[in-house]
Amino acid sequence: MEEADALEALGNVLERLTENPYDISLHAEHIRIANATGLDEQAESALDMFTAFWAAGDEIWLPLIDRKLKSANLESEEGLNAVLGLFERAEQDYLSIPLLQRHLEFLIERHEHYSTAEQKPEDLGELFSTEWTRAAISAVVSQGAGHLSRSHQLFDLQRDWVFEQLQNAPDTEKAPLIEHVESMLLGRLQQPHSNHDETFQAYSTFTTNYKPADQYESLLVKASKMKAQAVKTYQRHEPLEHSLTLASYSLEAYAYYLTSERRKKPDLFVLKTLYERAIAEAAKRRFAGEAGAEEALRSFWIGYLDFLRIQDVDDEISMATYNRALRSVPASGEVWARYMRFLERLDSDEVDSEIAGRFSDDVLSAYEKAMSVGPLVTDAEQLVPVVLTRAGFEKRRLQSGDASENGFAAILDILTHGINRVRKASPTGDPRLRLEKFFSAICLDLADQAEHALIMWEDTTKHYKTSYLAWTSYTDVLIKQRMLDDARKVFRDVAMKNLDWPEAIWDAWVTFEQLYGSVEAIEDALDRVERANAQTHARRLKEAERAGRNAMQLAAEQQAASVPVTEAAPPTQAQAPEEPGAAPMDVDAVQRGEARTKRKAEEEIVPDESKKAKLGMYESEGDRENCTVFVADLPSDAQEADLAALFKDCGDIREIKITQLSNARVATVEFHERESVPAALTKDKKRVHDEEVAVHLAWKSTLYVTNFPEKADDAFIRELFGKYGTIFDVRWPSKKFKATRRFCYVQYTSPAAAEAALELHGHELEPGMPLSVLISNPERKQERTDSGANDREVYVAGLSRFATKEDLENLFKTYGAVKDVRMALDNNGRPKGFAFVEFEREEDARAALSANNHELKRRRIAVTLADTHVRSKNRCFLTPHHSDPKAEVRNRSVRIRKLPPGTQEGLLHQALEKIAAVKRVEVFSDKNEADVELESAAEAGKLLLHADPIVFEGSTLEVLPESTGGARTSRPATPPAGGMFVPRTAVSRPRAGLGSKKRVTTIAASSSTAAVPGQASGPQAQAKGQDDFRKMLSGGK
User: Fold this and answer.
1) Nearest of 186, 133, 142, 204 to residue 162 by alpha carbon
2) Where would I find the beta strands (DSSP E) of 679-813?
3) Mind listing the pLDDT tens digit for each residue in 476-486?
4) pLDDT, tens digit, 9 for 90 and up, residues 716-774
5) Which residue has the higher pLDDT, 473 or 633?
6) Residue limits of the RRM domain (predicted)?
């Protein structure tokens, strides 16, 4: 960027920042443009401006500190205090190990500088004396002491510096230093951290050098006992720390870690720092512009503040934490509300005047500050809790007699002002009407001012014309005031209106008439409700039909627009008409000799080689476990030839695979026939190279594991089961057909280890989730897989927007045990109108079909058996914008190359999910490549733009956009047929099954488009007619 352009851009962004100083994206842009100018003053000013409005991470503070170190006079007290003050400000924002390390390095470097200088500047006084430096270093290290995996980076600097001081100290000064070092080391041993062994070794060395020899053993025994609890604490957290690392410290992983810790008895030392770590990571990602980071950051702060309140921490610590939170998320209404309640508690607890004097805010000034934050007052969801908290504070003052004479009027003014702001902030306002309800309750219960409540609700119904909640609340107040005729008039007027939930207002009216009306009034209400119901039903049908037509038209237009011109083959010379308009129209005439129904018996069936090969593979897989033996305790130099010689008289061997584990050499031997296995088992205890080997059925050392937490990955399972013996392999299922699959196979090198691990069966890793661990007997395979899950699942459509998961569970549990209920939600978390219910048994799912046409929340629901394959194919037509499915799938897909041989789809799915949200993985083992479909194009971008190389099982993967990934032979690029237009030739297409040829969609390597199945190609291709046009509109088939 040219200097003039940069300066102009800088002026523009500064002007926008003046109008909106709480827009963090503008601050990030300001810093980027300031750096582009190359002017140090502008860059430093941009960083300073950021810290004035926002809490900053080390990405802001470290450059600022570097600039200050270069510009400050470090030989003067003023310069040193300026740097130290900057460090103090930086450390108050977020926990940062790099920042604390820089602080320690500065302290150590300055102390060494002044210690070796000929003369220390007189104006420094005690600054950077040995005692002062020791205390300053201890204070810095204590800030990061709770970081389980990285606190040693700080303590090691302190330890090395203190040891050096002790070593160089005169003998006359060593006694107090020895006492200090011993206290420091013993204190560290009692803190959970990752390198306890190294700390214990340091204490052992210290004891050897500086303690009497006869005390050595007793001191180490004492120290070992002191560290025991801390070691156990770290070991309990180590799996979660490891999972956090594998997840690249994602915000979801932090949320899971925090939830796990909150379920147990909370450890203040660990959990406090864990919240600090999560908050720092969320702030870093927010600054980088990551979607959802702001919401996660607010959630972490709210959880942290609530945790400190429950733990009843010191008021000064709480106040400091609230101030930090408000600098970090100034637009969070929930944080401001908690801060105001904290201030109210301080006032009511009559805190010591000296402490209270240090708390400059009170509830009123905090409220004014909150209302000055632009993003907060323009966000209705954040504004409501602040106004409610202020109004609640005034209500409690009024009830306690502390309020002024006009206390009631003040509450109404606050609420009225808040209601107007909420309605101005958002067109939808507050759908829950929280402020209006509070206003009404104050008027009715506190001051007997019903007229104010009625005026407010009348105004609310004018603003929220279609809100059933506004109308029912209005009629409730009328009924309480015995204004029955007015309530009846409102019911009559609103019954025919187009409300968001008309059934609620109808029920309220009928109930009202049952309580207060005459027989004529009841019948009149029922008649009007019936007419309104019919009208509403008809309107909904029309809206559904209109939406369906629009969706189909949009899908057809987009599909037609996506077909390249090159796909429409030009007519051959023989087909060309003699003159324009002379060509006859193709009107679906049956070609001579063409069968339109069943294939004739004499027709030759062309074998499908790809299908034959695939069937052969499945035949091999079906009995593979019964045909395989496992060989353990092999000598280190054993080769395939040795095993072939050992088993040569047992039967035909299909494959021998030798694997070198970290502490053992093992092999699997697979036979063509299962009858070979009994003979192979007699080779147990035979010798290979003069060493006994162990032979057993492979499945006897294999466990089938399910019902573990959803976040559990390969490392988690290996950690959990590894203590029972050497693990040979962990196999994970592919999720390409069913994303909810959650089981795996754990294979040990010996059956004894598998038997020992059965003790985990029934163990609850999470409350209410007992782990299922069984020996993987292939004869019972159907009982322990999810292959029949599709037949146990029903699809429920036509749901009311007010239906909940609990409603569905209550309805369908009457037909049998419900395993899972999955409701489709839109981007705002509201139901989309359909759901899937999975039962434990297939017969229960079939029984649940009788719920079809059942009325749930005033809506008739449709219940059919689910088909996951059909759902996955048609899911693209259920998306909100009905985008082109072919382009949509391609945009969110990538091709992975250079996979290691034998890659498991399940493991690759897990590894990639650490980087982006993965929807589907399909591995092509013959090419060592995979297709990966992500949840969105943005997620695909994360994978393509990942800064670090992606290493999987020792291989560095190559990630390419789907369009450059070559031919895809496993799944069609075009959507399935369906919609408004259906090709007539589709009627005669035979169903896949025995005796029918499977059609395979092939995508040529030189073209990005798929050939239409059944369409001739090459020189004899026919011109496109009506059938082809219908095929194009209906999905390309």
Assistant:
1) 133
2) 687-688, 691-692, 694-697, 702-706, 727-731, 743-748, 764-766, 769-770, 772-775, 793-797
3) 999 999 999 99
4) 899 899 888 889 888 887 666 556 667 888 998 888 889 989 999 888 888 777 888 98
5) 473
6) 627-700, 701-778, 792-868
What tokens does 835 get? 């759901």
- Residue 670: helix, strand or coil by DSSP? strand
How does pLDDT run across 907-919, given as a tens digit for each residue? 888 888 888 888 8
Q: Which residue has the higher pLDDT, 850 or 226?
A: 226
Hey, which bits of 826-978 come out as E strands? 831-839, 855-856, 859-860, 862-865, 893-897, 918-924, 929-934, 951-952, 955-956, 958-961
Average pLDDT rounded to a whole number, residues 1-14: 76
Q: Residue count of the chain, please give it.
A: 1037
Return the number of other C-beta atoms located less than 10 Å from residue 146's C-beta.
Answer: 22
Q: Tell me how many degrees the CA angle 273-275-281 measures, rounded to the nearest 5.
A: 105
**Which one has a higher pLDDT value, 282 or 890?**
282
Distance (Å, whole) CA 509 – CA 531: 14
Interstrand relation of 687-688 and 691-692 (parallel, antiparallel or unpaired): antiparallel
Contact (Cβ atoms closer than 8 angstroms) between residue 876 and residue 883:
yes
b (16+ CB within 10 A) / e for 111-141: beebeeeeeeeeebeebbeeeebbebbeebb
Query: CB count, 10 Å around CB of 576?
Result: 11
> For residues 669 and 781, what is the distance between their CA atoms, to the nearest angstrom?
21
Query: C-alpha distances in angstroms, 1019 versus 564, 1004, 1016?
Result: 19, 17, 9
Alpha-carbon span 877 to 496, nearest angstrom: 33
What pLDDT score was predicted for residue 739? 60
Between CA 993 and CA 230 the distance in angstroms is 63
Q: CB of 300 within 8 A of CB of 284?
A: no
Q: CA torsion sign, 158 to 159 to 164 to 170? A: positive
CA dihedral 479, 482, 488, 494 (to 10 degrees): -40
Exposure string for 806-819, b = 16+ CB within 10 A, e = fewer: ebbeebbeebbebb
How many Cβ atoms are within 10 Å of 442's Cβ, its own excluded? 22
What is the residue whose two structure tokens read 């740097």?
A: 83
